[in-house]
Automatic annotation (TrEMBL), chains A, B:
Belongs to the ATP-dependent AMP-binding enzyme family. Pfam families: AMP-binding (PF00501), AMP-binding_C (PF13193). Residues 16-391 form the AMP-dependent synthetase/ligase domain. Residues 441-516 form the AMP-binding enzyme C-terminal domain. Keywords: Fatty acid metabolism, Ligase, Lipid metabolism. This is AMP-binding protein.
Length: 536, 536
């Protein structure tokens, strides 16, 4: 390639190398009473890389991880690529057969699993046909299931060594990780990230979430989700402190906010709802930066968190875009708006982050839709922060990249100021009597009712209109409201045809591990009857 | 090349494209009463690019600029590469023959010059043989000299057009600018920057100087100096406001600090001395970030600025490293140190910035010197933020890159914590009786005397010892001190053999346009007599 005096391939490995040299004694990872310095972080990654090699992992091989947000998962984000291998961080909520599919599809040589997740893999362990390594986390209280077999993480590391390895990559477009999309339906696809994209997206996370070496980042976002939106690498790059969190527990989150001096956290809006409505919620004595994505945050939760002392950074992206791709940049004039109008601006998905090529909303022929805030189109992206493809799936890759743009499958509008706003997943939109109804719009309207904690709207079959919206509502603890009161609230705010015919009150909504509401479960239940009716 | 859906060449052009789309109405450039929005900034750059093409500038051609820190210079940083040309920003303090040399060596097709600098180029204008374009800045009061000829900037722009051009580059390793080193001796060499390095260094400036979209950056650093340490591109990337400054005037700087709400500025320590000791200097009502480099800042000026409300970010680099390459990262423990000890830590050049490969201090055989804070060696660097070479000078390029590392020519030590500290330019070190004396160390010691404003130490010939240190001291206004008092102050602090034999009091020190003290002028004066004596 080029003269390497003035060209070095970009890789997140360089971030840990630097922080271990610059901040060797600073706490890189805090987990309960454990404190891991940057020097130890790098040493553990080095030992892991050697151990993987000694276990037969060759350059380009995949290594699967099924761990919650514990230190070993952070170490994997550097140790696996340091062995020139590819990290496959698997969703911890998946069922055994799904984990088996991912291990087999990715051709992983090794699976590192938390003892607490043995119940998931025990039924399929024998069929995996790969080495299993078990991490036993004293904090979990879970013991390894002998039926799973394999070796302990300590036994794996014992195969390692401390000889330094180069924190470098030969080609920056080599794959660093494969993230299987936690698709709500269908077989998951393996999204490939390259070192260059991971490096650039990490810098963008630092820039837009305003991380500094003083950052104390709370891991409320799963690391298996887009490698924690590349924050596994970003917080390491800046020399901040990762504060690990095994599971989403509102009391524990508030304890850490107070006792660990948290400055930043990321999470889906449902996680933010949990935090804002927890019993120990209280005004913070400092501003923290909360970066949120995964679904449009409702103006209500934006308002709640602002009152507690958080500054919200609203981003949007997909597994295919290394996590966040857009950011809702705050314009000077917005601070002068009344809170409701401002929150409405902040709830939009925004504009491309600094390292992106920018985002478009397009008609099926890939021409721009008018920037009128009304015409719906598909959100498409391109550039260094778009996946290099689906692993071993050229057909799906070709479909996703049709016309030279990555197709998000998300529907949205383009506002006159260039900001995009999601209106729905293509499959979530409700078509009622030929009119499109955005479930997101209906949800935000219902959510603005003071008694409502959470809501999901789906289309249900209707003899005359084809589909009609139906709402599933979780009320705030202690609050009361009738379906008619909520319907009246909605009628006063949006077009009549968008008002749900039925409003069901439920105790909770089905969610993915990242906190996304699984509308397909609600929808399936409604349509199952319908289909049987048609067939019957 | 690669599939461009997931690979886009890195270029700072993308930064203005994005900010013009995201912040079209925000003030990009403030200069006196002029306010240029981001939309207009991009429009002007587009018009300039078309105008350059219409004037015969072809891809890869060089375009020379000789302007102070005015808006047209910022526009050039985007308009010239948008025309696929290479910007050659020339030091405004150079003499006519030097400007002529740079224009001829770079083969520039066009020279854009400020009317206020006509006295510089008038004597050589006829010999240049290239098109001259004159910018007349009403704020300067300078009128164009008819002898220079050529056309006005307005006439140039009239050749332009508003048709959008792609804010992109075919190969990220194409050259974006050539910066001629303002070498204190010898013919200047043309340092080539590529789009990739400029892009990455811009992101590093944002990260380490903690720029945000609210940044209001005061242009105390010349834009012709390493393209303003890439801050021309960085502040544009983040969507901050550039506050232009035609010349270093302490009263005007303080007026802008107050009236423009400046949040950031960069400058050599001598510029900081000017600011800190100006008549209107006063405590700021907010923290501003002052990024400094060019010479090690003395603990005294660090202390002064901290008291005024500035947070110092100390960086170090060379024209060959896109400006800053290292940063003195602040360690947790330093805040607990007493101010003097802390300032001493902060005066070190530090560690590689986040986008670099890291810095080394080496012996002549390129092996690391011991990290003992005492053994001197040469500072060497490599990676994406090292120039791609000297323009049309393969021999000098080869010398600079001997052994695969860029040789800075700076001598320093490596501390046990991995921080480097400069001790001298190779040519500034004093060898006295076989002992090396760091002029920087002697200068810092003299500078800690309360009566001293500025000091330079050079080696002067000595019959017995070969060389001995001699100090040139500028006293603070109203302060008094005798040479013996200062010598006693130094004797109490460093080894006797390092104490200057002679201390001269002078009204001012010779400086380069970027505020670096020109020791060679002091040295030449001393050695001229000596040489004539030897020869005589």
């Amino acid at each position: 390639m080029a003269d390497d005096t003035w060209f070095t391939p970009l890789t997140p490995l360089a971030f840990l190398d630097r922080s271990a040299r610059v901040f060797p004694d600073r706490t890189a990872i805090a987990y309960g009473d454990r404190r891991i310095s940057y020097a130890d972080f790098a040493a553990e990654a080095t030992r892991l890389a050697h151990a993987l090699r000694a276990s037969g992992v060759k350059p380009g091989d995949r290594v699967a991880y099924l761990l919650p947000n514990i230190p070993e998962m952070l170490v994997a984000h550097f140790g696996v690529p340091l062995a020139e291998a590819v990290l496959v961080a698997v969703n911890t909520r998946l069922a055994g057969p799904e984990v088996r599919h991912i291990c087999q599809h990715s051709g992983a040589k090794l699976l590192v699993v938390d003892a607490g997740l043995h119940p998931t893999i025990a039924p399929v362990a024998a069929e995996l046909g790969i080495a299993i390594v078990t991490v036993t986390d004293p904090a979990s209280g879970a013991a390894a299931d002998p039926a799973v077999g394999g070796m302990s993480y300590e036994e794996l590391l014992a195969r390692g060594a401390d000889t330094p390895l180069p924190w470098a990559v030969r080609d920056e477009r080599d794959t660093i990780s494969i993230n299987y999309t936690s698709g709500t339906t269908g077989q998951p696809k393996g999204v490939m990230y390259h070192h260059r994209g991971a490096y650039l997206n990490s810098l963008a996370e630092i820039v837009h979430s305003q991380h500094t070496p003083e950052s104390r980042y709370l891991w409320t976002l799963p690391m298996f989700h887009c490698n924690g939106w590349c924050t596994t690498w970003a917080v390491t790059a800046i020399g901040g402190t990762h504060v690990c969190l095994r599971s989403i527990d509102a009391n524990e989150i508030w304890r850490l906010l107070d006792e660990e001096g948290i400055t930043h956290l990321n999470g889906a809006p449902t996680v933010l709802v949990t935090i804002a409505n927890a019993q120990p919620a209280h005004q913070l004595d400092r501003e923290i930066i909360v970066t949120t994505a995964g679904a449009p945050p409702s103006p209500t939760v934006i308002g709640q968190l602002t009152e507690l002392g958080a500054r919200l950074v609203h981003v949007y992206g997909l597994t295919e875009t290394y996590g966040p791709y857009t950011v809702c940049e705050v314009q000077d004039g917005w601070l002068k708006l009344d809170p409701q109008a401002r929150n409405k601006m902040l709830a939009r998905q925004g504009v491309g982050m600094v390292v992106t090529d920018g985002v478009r909303v397009v008609a099926p022929d890939l021409t721009d839709v008018p920037r009128d805030g009304a015409t719906m189109g598909e959100v498409v992206m391109r550039g260094n922060n778009v996946m290099s493809g689906y692993f071993a799936d050229p057909a799906a890759t070709e479909r996703a990249f049709a016309g030279g743009w990555f197709h998000s499958g998300d529907l949205g509008v383009w506002h006159p100021d260039g900001y995009i706003e999601l209106r729905d997943r293509a499959k979530d939109i409700i078509v009622s009597g030929g009119e499109n109804i955005s479930t997101i719009e209906v949800e935000a309207t219902i959510d603005s009712h003071p008694a409502v904690l959470e809501v999901a709207v789906v289309g249900v079959p209707h003899e005359k209109w084809g589909e009609r919206p139906k709402a599933f509502v979780v009320l705030r603890s202690g609050a009361t409201a009738t379906a008619e009161e909520i319907a009246a609230h909605v009628r006063a705010r949006i077009a009549r045809f968008k008002v749900p015919d039925t409003i069901d009150f439920v105790a909770e909504l089905p969610k993915t591990s990242t906190g996304k509401i699984q509308k397909f479960q609600l929808r399936e239940r409604e349509w199952k009857d319908r289909e049987s009716r048609i067939q019957g």
